Each structure stands twice: as C-alpha cells, then as structure tokens.
Amino acid sequence: MVTKPRTGQTPSKATLAKLSTATYTVGTLRQGGNGRAPDGGAIVDYPKGWRFLPVPHNSEAGEILKKNSKVVYAMERLHNLGGVRDDASGTSAGFKKVIADAHYNLVIAPQIKADEERKAREEEEQRQTITTLKMRVQELEKPVSEPTAPAVTSSLPIIPIIIIVVIVGIFLLRRRA
Predict the structure, then answer these.
(1) Residue closest to 37 by CA, chosen among 28, 46, 49, 27
(2) How does pLDDT run across 26-76, given as a tens digit for each residue?
(3) Cα separation, 114 vs 85, whole angstroms
(4) What is the pTM of this model?
C-alpha cells in the first residue's frame, strides 16, 4: 500500500517521521523484531494468503483447506487484493465467504456429524443396557412355581428283567444237567 499525500497538501511531520522509520522490503512484510507474521506464522508463509484461513495453516484443518482448489484460489485473490479496502470491494467478501464455506463443509460439518454419530451410538448402548437389566429384573421377579413330580410308570424296566431271568434260568438248567 502506497501512502501519498492528498493533492495540494504536504504530509505532516508525524507522517514523514513514520514513513522514514518504516522498513519494508519487496515481497515481504514489514520486518519486525520478532520475525513473525501478524497471524503468528513465519513471515515467509504470510504472503501466500494463509492469513485468511480461519485456522492455522500448519494444522490438520489448515492442510485440508489448502488442498481445496477453490480455497487456494480465494486466498491468492485475497492476497492480491490486499490494497483494496474491504468495504469498497464486494470481491474480497465473496472470496472470504468461499473460504468460510469450505471451512464449514470440510472441517466443521464432519466434526459435527462424528459427534452426532458418537452420541447416537452411546445412547443406543445405554438403551440396550437398560433393556437387558429390565429383562433380568423381570426374570428374578417371576413367582417360583412348585416343581411337579415326574409321572411314575414303573420303577424297573420290564425288558432287562426278562433278559436277566432268561440268563439265570439257562445257567441253572446247565448246572443240573
């Protein structure tokens, strides 16, 4: 951004003092004592338009956004429109909306969906646990009925008795003979 005095006016001494102490280099930001860009990143990265990301550019969400071609284009255009005032240009607002929409669709919406799925899964597990416990309580509360005695048909089966009698009879007949 180039500061020019208004036509027919000379700059004030304060303005001249500020301009004389400001140090700028071509293609980079004003070099401050801390060597950091206003967004906290490295000065080398600042001109790439990353300052327009709603998250740090080196985070996982920042990496997702930087892979989206529309976001990259919007960041580059916003960086190139750096000298244009926001209120004078609807273009920058449109590019900022592209970045904000992509941030919502690629980062925030999946997180919301994952949280909803996790919550639904936990509620289903709780529901199943409660149902299981209710069934167990019902089983324990059932009245105990008196056991019924098995039907008495005979105490000894008839066929094995007949076989034993025949064998004993044959054995006794052989001894007599």
Answers:
(1) 46
(2) 444 444 445 555 555 555 655 567 777 787 767 888 888 888 888 888 888
(3) 39
(4) 0.47
